[in-house]
């Protein structure tokens, strides 16, 4: 009997994994469809015929979360780039809208989204920001940067909780997002502060909230996310991870996150549900950089 069991044991081990997978409830896979036609009015397509030179960027990246991937980027925009974005967006602002039916229709709905938006022209400076966003993502061949949009939130301005990703129909969708802070200032100020203690000087409110994203455990993150005064007793790895994260609007800095799970199911991360909290006093200006393409 012992020899018989010893003989069949390798066979059981060899076939056990396929048998388990056969009878397990595997998540559905993406039904892949051919790539839709690329629309240059919506996407910032690369054009090799235009020559421009971008200055070296000296940003610093911190990993905030690994699943979903969330990166915090210090100095993503230089002061001159921030000034340029503010200048070119000023004459272009229109009331922001919300979309329905997969983007087929849109409407101005201030109860959901109260801000002004400007789709900025693709100047040399804007193209350099586009290139930086591509490079951070590894120059993915089937991912394109959407046209950059500057958002301005005055007092009371907000954007209710939402996902950037839609259904991911056909294996294509908005695969990643950047929230970049261009300016944050109080009433009567010319510009926002850039101190490491976070937020623009004089601005109240206006943080970017991820209520389902666990707050990092190290007290050093309190320079960039909102922390309660009594939250950190000892700090470091011994501190408890809080529920929810609110990133402070620090001009020049950015948050990047992946919207879809990397498991070929097309499922989005629930943790990317987020909101632009109401501005209580002052003006906040943000830059949305969305990437559309192949869901991996």
From TrEMBL:
<dbReference type="InterPro" id="IPR045054">
    <property type="entry name" value="P4HA-like"/>
</dbReference>
<dbReference type="GO" id="GO:0005506">
    <property type="term" value="F:iron ion binding"/>
</dbReference>
<keyword id="KW-0479">Metal-binding</keyword>
<keyword id="KW-0560">Oxidoreductase</keyword>
<keyword id="KW-0223">Dioxygenase</keyword>
<feature type="signal peptide">
    <location>
        <begin position="1"/>
        <end position="25"/>
    </location>
</feature>
<dbReference type="GO" id="GO:0031418">
    <property type="term" value="F:L-ascorbic acid binding"/>
</dbReference>
<feature type="compositionally biased region" description="Gly residues">
    <location>
        <begin position="193"/>
        <end position="207"/>
    </location>
</feature>
<dbReference type="InterPro" id="IPR006620">
    <property type="entry name" value="Pro_4_hyd_alph"/>
</dbReference>
<keyword id="KW-0732">Signal</keyword>
<feature type="region of interest" description="Disordered">
    <location>
        <begin position="186"/>
        <end position="207"/>
    </location>
</feature>
<dbReference type="GO" id="GO:0004656">
    <property type="term" value="F:procollagen-proline 4-dioxygenase activity"/>
</dbReference>
<protein>
    <recommendedName>
        <fullName>Prolyl 4-hydroxylase alpha subunit domain-containing protein</fullName>
    </recommendedName>
</protein>
<dbReference type="Pfam" id="PF13640">
    <property type="entry name" value="2OG-FeII_Oxy_3"/>
</dbReference>
<dbReference type="InterPro" id="IPR044862">
    <property type="entry name" value="Pro_4_hyd_alph_FE2OG_OXY"/>
</dbReference>
<feature type="domain" description="Prolyl 4-hydroxylase alpha subunit">
    <location>
        <begin position="68"/>
        <end position="292"/>
    </location>
</feature>
<dbReference type="GO" id="GO:0005783">
    <property type="term" value="C:endoplasmic reticulum"/>
</dbReference>
<keyword id="KW-0408">Iron</keyword>
